[in-house]
């Protein structure tokens, strides 16, 4: 599977990712790392305790990493959580709505991770 | 010509982001143009900045990081003198953080994700350029040692004050350090730098109390452009007191020239005159302040005329050499031993001019060698003439100035002079003032040593007026010590002076040197000097300096004495 095929499989924006990382080699390095760098796991773990600071920091990190990788939907979903918990800003969602968002992030991430595993396993 | 990239400082960029993907993304953008180093959090960033503070051109700083946030990093940087000059570009996706970062000193922003490579490179390049430009201006604007303005900026700002604030009536002050090269030579460059720093600091303190600006104009010269001060002597004393406190073992003397404000006289001219006034009190430790007025102007014009007329004076033989005898006072009766050649100037308009009016002037501008060469030639010819006329050889001393010592043709010129006139080397004695030995002593000693090896006798003139240490004296290639006349002047009244004279004579004897006492005017002085064991005496007691024809009477008398 090529990188472009992977991006097609996980509904990512390959062109966007290449604009940021400039070369397939770096894109390959960081897309492989997504399943092991703990960025998504931290957000999902923070969702267990619903700690606002942890949620904000983890969502902020995930938003950035996914944006760089052209994982537009994951980035946008993480951004919603980050904005929800941005220090000094009033909350807009209920905890239940946040949990629902986190669940959809978990689903999306699971599909993305499955695709990446397929890619890494050749 | 040096290629400009060789004098550019290497441009190093520090990328600070906790996410490896961000560090990599920026790395691939920047690595072709810059040396890139990385940090994963704020604390690491500060460590890197401190380790590379002189090489770092810019920091790209993420705001949200574990351990220490970007905001905390900026707080530390702002408080740190060593790091404050390094510009920071903030990496953020949050609009809301921009204002706070700007207030904390961020130079610009780069928004995430980093997908606009050309824009990022352009921003980094522009901020580095702006920051280096600002640093260059700041470096060029100020003298690093004293933090006063550098010369060009000072005059630019002085001109602006003159043009835009004519109501301020500002005076020009020039402050100079006496014999600064000797202070450096004897106490080391670091001590000299301390002196400059302390004066700079006091000038800055003074300018906090009054309206004005200041510059380190040259190595040891300070220009101050300020509103009229009530008492310039008090101002000079204020600076002098500061330098007096630097070291109990080193005397640092300042002198000051002031040109008061005059309508429509521009700063550059005002400072020319303040500088001229300051130069006129060079070496005047009793009265080191000169306010430029009409008298100074007259003297300045006279000096200029003398400088212009020197070459004509040589060509038209307006310079005349007089001779003052030196007597061996250990003989009874005292016997003519040698003479010193002394210059006079018979100026066609100004009449007879004493050497005190022109020798220091020519020493100051390097033309003294013209006078010295003239005296050497005249003296050598005169010795030869007397030798032929009386069959009597009278050795004559001539001055060797500092400028002569550094002339590569010196040895050839002197040797030729001796040969052309059929003399022996010891007939022409060379007097070198003590102060000539202090700066670049090795070079001076080498030259003197070679001249002595050729056969010339060397006299150290004005011994005791300068800075020689006893240690140095024992290494000096000299034959005769000429005591400064200040020691002799008061030996009849002042016991301390007499003891000093005895001490100098003893030292000279110990080093197997002859001693000459200058400025002897009375019988009492002569008697005391004879008792100390002083060999030779020169002064009005025996004779004033005489033109050659009058001097011949002394030679005739000496020949008569010899014949008994």
CATH architecture of chain A: Up-down Bundle
Radius of gyration of chain A: 15 Å
What is the N-to-C order of secondary-structure elements of chain A (H for helix, E for strand)?
Answer: HHHHHHH
Radius of gyration of chain B: 34 Å
Share in β-strands of chain A: under 5%
Give the helix/strand class of chain B: alpha/beta
Q: In this structure, how is the largest beta sheet of chain A organized?
A: none
The percentage helix of chain B is 40-55%
> What is CATH's topology name of chain A?
Four Helix Bundle (Hemerythrin (Met), subunit A)
According to DSSP, the number of beta strands of chain B is 19
Quantity of strands of chain A, as a count: 0
Low-pLDDT windows of residues of chain B:
1-7
Oligomer: heterodimer
- Examine the coordinates and then state which fold CATH places here, giving the name of the CATH topology of the largest domain in chain B: TIM Barrel
Query: Approximately what portion of the residues of chain B adopt beta-strand conformation?
Result: 15-25%
For the largest beta-sheet of chain B, the strand count, sense and barrel status come to: 8 strands, mixed, barrel
Relevant terms:
heterodimer; A: 122 residues; mainly alpha; Four Helix Bundle (Hemerythrin (Met), subunit A); B: alpha/beta; Alpha-Beta Plaits; 3 domains; 8-stranded mixed barrel; 5-stranded parallel sheet; 19 strands; 49% helix
Condensed summary:
Chain A is an all-alpha fold. Chain A has seven helices and no strands. Chain B has three domains: 9-141, Response regulator (Rossmann fold), CATH 3.40.50.2300; 151-292, Alpha-Beta Plaits; 301-563, EAL domain (TIM Barrel), CATH 3.20.20.450.
Provide a descriptive summary of the structure in words.
The complex is a heterodimer of chains A (122) and B (564). Chain A has 122 residues and is mainly alpha-helical. Chain A has a single domain (3-120), classed as Four Helix Bundle (Hemerythrin (Met), subunit A) (Up-down Bundle), CATH 1.20.120. Chain A is built from 7 helices and no strands. Chain A has helices at 3-10, 14-21, 24-33, 39-49, 52-68, 72-84, 95-120. In chain A, α1 runs antiparallel to α7. Chain A is elongated and about 45 Å long. Chain B has 564 residues and is α/β, with parallel strands linked by helices. Chain B has 3 domains: 9-141, Response regulator (Rossmann fold), CATH 3.40.50.2300; 151-292, 2-Layer Sandwich (Alpha-Beta Plaits), CATH 3.30.70; 301-563, Alpha-Beta Barrel (TIM Barrel), CATH 3.20.20. Helices cover 49% and strands 20% of the residues of chain B. In chain B, the strands form 3 sheets. In chain B, strands 11-12-14-15-16-17-18-19 form an 8-stranded mixed beta barrel, surrounded by 4 helices. Chain B is elongated, with a radius of gyration of 34 Å. Chain B starts with a helix and ends with a helix. Residues 1-7 of chain B have low confidence and may be disordered.
